[in-house]
Amino acid sequence: MESRLNTVSADIRDITTAEQRVIKAQALCAEIEQEASKAAEQQGWTELSTAAQDQLSMLQCILGSMKDTKVKHEEVERWLNAADELLSRDASSFSQADKLQEEVNQCKELVSEMESVDLSLKQMRENVTAVQQSSIPGLISWGQTELDDSQRRWDTLSKEVRKITSSGAEH
Questions:
Q1: Global pTM?
Q2: Coiled-coil segments, which residues (predicted)?
Q3: Domains along the chain?
Q4: Cβ distance 12 to 136 under 8 Å?
C-alpha cells in the first residue's frame, strides 16, 4: 500500500487527472483505515494512514486551485471577448444615435467590470503559482500559457477601453 500511496499523485496534468487521483487517494485512505482497524501493530498503519490523508489533502487543495483557476479564466475570457468585440466594430456603424448609445452603454459596462476582472486575473496568477509549486512534476508549467495569454490580452484591451472612455468623457 505504501508504494500505491507514493504513486497516487503521479501523472497529474490537468483537472481530469487531478480528479481521478483524488478519487484514488480517497479509496486508498479508506482501505488503509480498514486495514489499520484489523491490524495488531497499529503504529505502522497509523503512519501510513496519516501520510495518505496528507496526500489526499494536498491533492484536494491542488484540484480546488485548478478548478478555481478555470472559473476565473472563463470570467476573464468573457470580458476580454466582449471588449475585443466592442473595440473591433466598424466606427461607420455608429451613425445612428441609438446604436451609438448602445455602444456607450456597453463600454460603460465593461469599465464597471474591470476591477473584478483584474482581481480574477490576480487570483488566477496565485492559483497557477500554487499548483506549479506543488511537488507534482506534471504540473510545473500548468496553466502558464492561458495565464500569459489572458494577461497579454488584458493589458492591451483594458488600455484601449480606458482610452475610449477617457476620450468619450472629454466630449
A1: 0.84
A2: 15-42, 97-127
A3: 2-170 (1.20.58)
A4: yes
